Amino acid sequence: MSEFKVNENLTITLNEGVFGLWNLETGEQYEIFERRYLDRIFELNELVGMPYTSKPEDGILIEAEILLIGEKAEQYQNTQKANGPWGWDPISKIFHLGSKHNFPSDLTNTEENNEIGYVNFCESIAESAPNLDIEREGELIKLPPWNINAIDTYSLKKALWERTTSRNFNGESVPLEIVSNILFTTFGKIHGDSHKKNLAERGISTVGYRRSSPSAGCLQATEAYLIALNVSNLERGIYHYRSHQHVLTKLDSGINADLTQILCHQNFAVEAAFLIVMSSRFDKLWWKYPHSRAYRSALMDVGHLSQTFNLVATAHKLNTWLTGYFIDNLLNELIKIDGFNEHSLFVLAGGHGLQDPLSPGVAKLLKALK
């Protein structure tokens, strides 16, 4: 009797009435049309540790590497023991394995031009390209023009060395001119249409544009929403930044929500002069990158932009703070996005205060405990 094991690195889905099974180890996906296969997986899981007895369904389960027999079962268990327990919840493991690139065809050597497939793919999706210039409805607010002198004399080394995370803001206002500079330098279309024109001269049509930070596929899937808490010459409220026009769209006058609750009671954040919520337009990424791996790209994009924001805000002598700790649905509601095609990923803060990684509340508590 051979030893057997059920591969635990799989997930079962229900989509549009069809049950699917995803082997997260190999990346292979299967449709399940007969319940007996699900029943057999359940039965095998109940029988682990007992002698293996074959059933008709097992051939397909073995081929899909869901049921592991003999040497494969032993290898699987040895790998599990060597790796140890996964440190997060199962959802994170599904994301980790499900966003891996597992296609062995990309490892084969061929004399064919490897770029042909990429060019053909780009041509096949060209007609369905999404609109990258996002324009929310609402009152348009003109922003001051970008002032190059604001950061031209501030060296990169100085910005890198002086950048720090601060949780001690004093609530003082920040001029709109500075916020405008930060928005344009971080999220703006700083090169205009030069990228598109340069490629057009080479016979290439592109839907993307360049910011000061790299972006997956040049799609600029990250949108910026300004929460103006105390910005001089700008009404307190919620705004969307139109990257391609360098203007704000007012989404809400005032802030009709409890920001401290939305930010999981990180109370010090409301003393910043402004917050910037970064969302990702998943629908842009879906167009060019239909595999779940592209979710990684969305996360990396906001990481690039976060560091650019840090350096630019530091050059304007502001304190900065970043967080990914918030109530997702409440933050999505605040900036009026659906949370499906577009979702909040990260929050930036800028303002005046002390350069202290400890919030006033934590500092006071620690002092009292001494």
From TrEMBL:
Residues 162-350 form the Nitroreductase domain. PANTHER family: NITROREDUCTASE MJ1384-RELATED (PTHR43745). InterPro entries: Bacteriocin_Proc_Enz, Nitroreductase, Nitroreductase-like, SagB-type_dehydrogenase. It holds the Pfam family Nitroreductase. One of its GO terms (molecular function) is oxidoreductase activity. This is Nitroreductase domain-containing protein. Gene3D superfamilies: NADH Oxidase. NCBIfam families: antibiot_sagB. It comes from the Bacteria.
